[in-house]
Amino acid sequence: MNKQKKLYIETYGCQMNFSDSEIVGSIMKENNYQSTKNSEEADVIFINTCSIRDNAEQRVRKRLGELNALKKQKPHLKIGVLGCMAERLKEKLLEEEKSVDIIVGPDAYRDLPQLMAEAESGQKAINVILSADETYADITPVKIDENKISAFISIMRGCQNFCSYCVVPFTRGKERSRDPETIIQEAKDLFEKGYREITLLGQNVNSYSFEGRENYHFPNLLADVAAVNPLLRVRFATSHPKDISDDLIKTIAAYPNICKAIHLPVQSGSTNMLTKMNRKYTREWYLERISTIKKHMPECAISTDIIAGFCDETEDDHADTLSIMQEVGYDYAFMFKYSERPDTVAAKKFEDNISEEIKSKRLTEIINLQRQLSHHSNKADIGKVFEVLVEGTSKKSKEQLSGRNSQNKVVVFPKENYKVGDYVQVKITDCTTATLVGEAV
Ligand code: 5AD
Ligand code: SF4
How far is the CA of 307 from the centre of ligand 1 (A)? Predict the structure, then answer.
């Protein structure tokens, strides 16, 4: 038997990528590679990459440069590039990045042992074939995250919404959903191992629909996972506003253990921009969905993604984004400058005509407004009591514990005799823009 080789995986980008890295860890473990948390002792380093914005790719390029230097000291080290950048750049990446031995797209991870064997024999190895049905349903992910309380379950892959700015449909291929039985079983196994919170993941979870089962959609799956155990919290990400149905809203409202936090990327508050982005909804339609959510669940937190400076965006369009943020009163937001991505409709048909300076100015206004909204939302929680799932000790003090409430806000409170994994009723006494502070009641 060969000595076990050590594998170090570095993950960039979204939660989906972190979940994929766990699948990769599992495939490699079956093939005699042991995961390590120390890159220095690794025989193999995989970089799981993101292509969503140019700066995400630049970060990976910089890292590959560093690894190139490391490889000079450790000639036996093998470097693999996985995920979206592998898919987007294919062979080109082998030509441009001398340090790279293996290129593997997001649907080809089962081929990794084979590709590793090729690389070990000194060849360059590549598989970037996209699949119409790969969901890795039978692979039990190797958990990388330490806290042992929360875990991801990938429920669907790919995206075919083709928002005009977005590279994901090109890097992750067609939408396909995983067999619900395997998802529910994974949730049960995780609960038995002590996990208390799972996040169902997909590029667009509300269009979940397993081919083998008629009339079984995301609300059905969510209800079935929530029924695994009332002590198992269930979250999901990410949702497209066009698919957030009344049925789904009612399901979230019906189960106390389905978290009252919805991430609903708006991208822009201007219907003109939304049309140009091919988002398939208007400002009014989005606001109607928000008011339906709030009608059924007044306590529900709402977070979003926003892009500043998309092609042809006027000051009026930008003002519409600021006003929709205020109207919804987002609890949290991820905010970005538009970054043109190759192959997308926007790259092919529209001009990236908002200057860097204006993009930055608009993004700053958006970020400043969101800071106020988050602070306002946190201040409104002072005096309320929340059930908090304890995740660990607070970064700032060992005497404090840190966890989250159903709304996904971080809550810090004195430790007493509570421990990780406990549900604790906490009364909020103070807050910052990012954290709620309280004490157990
Ligand atoms: N430029 C900037 N932001 C983008 N996003 C997706 N594509 C781009 C792009 N080309 C943002 C969207 C999406 C989030 C994951 O990333 O807001 O919801
Ligand atoms: Fe994830 Fe999207 Fe980045 Fe791919 S491009 S890693 S799907 S965020």
Answer: 7
